[in-house]
Amino acid sequence: MVITGRNLRRLVRVPTLIVFATVQPVLFVLLFTYVFGGAIRPSGVEHYVDFLLPGIFVLAIAFGASQTGVAIADDLATGMIDRFRALPMTRSAVLAGRTVADAVRNLFVLLLMTGVGYAIGFRFHAGPVAAAGAIGLALLIGVALSWINALVGLLVHDAETAGLAGLMPVIVLVFTSSTFVPIATMPGWLRAFAEINPVTVTVDALRALVLGGPTAEHVWQALAWIVGLLVVTVPVAVLRYRRTVAG
Question: For an engineered disulfide with 186, which of 100, 103, 135, 190 has Cβ 3.0 to 4.6 Å away?
Answer without folding.
Answer: 190
